[in-house]
Design goal:
Blueprint: E1 28-31, H1 39-48, E2 53-56, E3 68-70, E4 80-83, E5 86-89, E6 95-98, H2 102-113, H3 117-122, H4 126-131, E7 149-152, E8 158-163, E9 166-170, E10 174-175
Parallel strand pairs: 1-2
Antiparallel strand pairs: 3-4, 4-5, 5-6, 7-8, 8-9, 9-10
Helix pairs in contact: 1-2
């Protein structure tokens, strides 16, 4: 993608189009890991169009593992070095990906932009279902809908995870006995 430039805003410049434009401004994804996008850029993008921002992660299999060197695999046949959320090919600066989860990205957006939990969460649920035109089926808790959701702390950290209307994980108790067939 071409860079944002003051004389040629390119694709990135489309996010600030007015809603009445034809075609309308696009929805856009933000990798909220501080590796792919600087925190200031994440904040700028979110503030430009918070109702069209989709907060995503490209988290790879090293997420949640301690920092260290891990063997390669079929997709990346080189040893992988994980330091924090950044994963590179051993001995190089070649970025393999990040190990930042969507929950981490929500917390980052809150911290970097100063937005509230509800505003950050909107970027991972309501904005997605609106973009997909399925808001009549997903995105909010309503009677008769599938009840998969998370309960967050004020800082955006996960307190509980619910699937099918049943709590399957909590910060205090860990995983619960649960089956998708229950």
């Amino acid at each position: 993608m071409s860079s944002l430039h003051h004389r040629e805003p390119g694709l990135a410049g489309l996010i600030s189009l007015p809603e009445s434009s034809n075609p309308p401004p696009p929805y856009f994804s933000i990798l909220g890991d501080g590796i792919h996008l600087h925190p200031t850029v994440v904040t700028m993008l979110w503030r430009a169009a918070p109702h069209r921002a989709i907060l995503i992660s490209d988290s790879i299999e090293l997420a949640g593992l301690p920092d260290g060197t891990y063997p390669g695999h079929a997709q990346i046949p080189h040893p992988q070095v994980k330091v924090g959320w950044k994963a590179t090919i051993q001995g190089t600066d070649t970025l393999i990906g990040a190990c930042c989860t969507v929950a981490d990205a929500v917390r980052n957006l809150i911290q970097w932009s100063g937005c509230g939990v509800a505003e950050a969460v909107r970027c991972v649920n309501e904005n997605v279902v609106t973009m997909m035109s399925v808001e009549d089926q997903f995105g909010t808790l309503k009677e008769g809908r599938k009840a998969d959701f998370v309960v967050l702390e004020e800082d955006g950290s996960v307190r509980e995870t619910w699937m099918g209307g049943r709590r399957v994980w909590s910060k205090i108790e860990g995983f619960q006995n649960w089956s998708p067939h229950d």
